[in-house]
Structure formats: C-alpha cells, structure tokens
Amino acid sequence: MTDTKTTPTWDEALLANPHAVADKRSRVQRMFAAIAPSYDLNNRLHSLWMDQRWRRKAVKLADLKSTDRVVDVACGTGDLTLAFNRGLHRLGADLNANRPIGIDFTYEMLPIATRKSLAARNVFINGDAQMLPLADATSDVISIAFGIRNVADPAAAIREFHRVLRPGGRVIILEFSLPTNPILRGLYNFYFRHILPRTATWISGDRTGAYKYLPQSVNTFINRDSMVKMLSDCGFSRVTQHPMTFGICVCYRGIKS
Ligand SMILES: C[S@@+](CC[C@H](N)C(=O)[O-])C[C@H]1O[C@@H](n2cnc3c(N)ncnc32)[C@H](O)[C@@H]1O
Q1: What is the pTM of this model?
Q2: Ligand 1 centroid distance, CA of 196 (Å)
C-alpha cells in the first residue's frame, strides 16, 4: 500500500526534484509514451529548429570512422540515430553490414523511429540504458541525446556504456543545460518555465505533465562539471564539454582508454 502522507504526487515531485522520485523510471516512460506522436514537432518548434544542428555537432564530435559500430541509446524517434547514418554514409561506410542501432525503453517511440528510417533501415530495439542488450566491448560509439537526465540512475547507465564500448570507443552525451550569462539565463528560464510548457502541452494534448517535468528536470539535474566528473568516475578519459547556443545545450565526450 502507498503511504499517501509521505509519497508526493508527481505534480509535487515535478515542482521539487523529479530525479529524487522513487518511481521516476515508470513515470518517465509513461510521459514519453504519451508525447511520442507530437515529439518531433515540439522539438523543432521549441528549439527553433536548432535541435538538428545540435545532433549534427554531436555526430561531428564522435570522430566517426567508416567501420564504427554506433549505438544510439534513448533514441526516441531516432533523429540522432539517423544523423549517425548520414555521418557514416558520408564516410563511405557499408551501411548494409553495419547500421547504427537505436535503443529506447519507451516502446511507443520505436514505430515512429522505424517509419522515419524506412530508407535507411535502421534497427530499433526496446531496451534500457542501464541494462543494454549488448555484449562487452562491441561498440565504437555510444550516444545518448537528451536522455541521460531522464534515466533513473545516470551513473549506472554511463558505466553500462563503458562496458559495451571497445577500447578507444567514444561516449557522446547531448543534454540541455542553462546559459551561464545571468541575463540570458533569466530570459531563457522565463521561456523554458512559463511559455514552452504551455505551448508544448497544448500541441501534444499531454496530460502527464511531460512539459512541466522538462524545465524542472533540467534545472535540478547535475551541473556540467559534475557530469564531466561522473564520466571520469565511470572510467572515461579525456572528457570534454562543448556548450552550444549560449549553453542551452552541451555535448560531452569521453574516451574509453
Ligand atoms: C527527450 S527524449 C530524447 C530522444 C532522442 N534521443 C532525441 O534526440 O530526440 C528521451 C528519451 O529517453 C528515453 N529513456 C529515458 N530513460 C531511458 C532508459 N533508462 N533506457 C532507455 N531509454 C530511456 C525515453 O523513452 C525518451 O524516448
């Protein structure tokens, strides 16, 4: 039985620290299932089409080789998976033999990803970032875009990425952050906390609180230096951070030595 006196409702948790909620995993899954059909439209509109540029930068930072095996974790509707496809194609990779794989634990995202990649024929798998269905040291690039913040135990997922990477493999994490300039930060937070949740909720018809969770989960997530430290603590070396668009988005990269 649930103790209603001590267990906060999701709304209260959203307004406090959503990362500290015991049932974060199932709540997150339910939110992404609900917003999957309008996910891409909301992403494009609310980032003013910058989200695809951020993903292209992430692919660039992965320093791809034509034979690389790429796994895109928390792939959602597959935008980063497809960006990796294009990156490998440009290098003349044999995509018939070696296509990027997308993995996400929200089943509802995967048919959308599959439909978008009909020509590219990527494989999308229903799986959890904290327990990847992959053998040790079998991948060259593991990416996760706007996903690590949503994982119940980010350090456990990063250790899992380390496990499945080959020596020399790269982990690429794209995640929201906040501008460091206080004026820009204030303006952005006004948009992020007061405008985006309303317009995105209206577009998606969402009732799960997904777009209230978004700004709150960014504001309460570990900061950039802590993310760099987490990557180092999980065994990655030469960890770097690359802020984009005034620091709204950051790409982190680490190497498995
Ligand atoms: C904000 S979306 C990002 C989707 C995509 N990477 C992109 O660039 O648009 C976050 C995704 O992370 C997935 N996710 C969250 N926790 C996960 C976990 N533990 N394992 C796998 N996927 C997870 C959600 O299902 C959701 O599709």
Answers
A1: 0.95
A2: 19
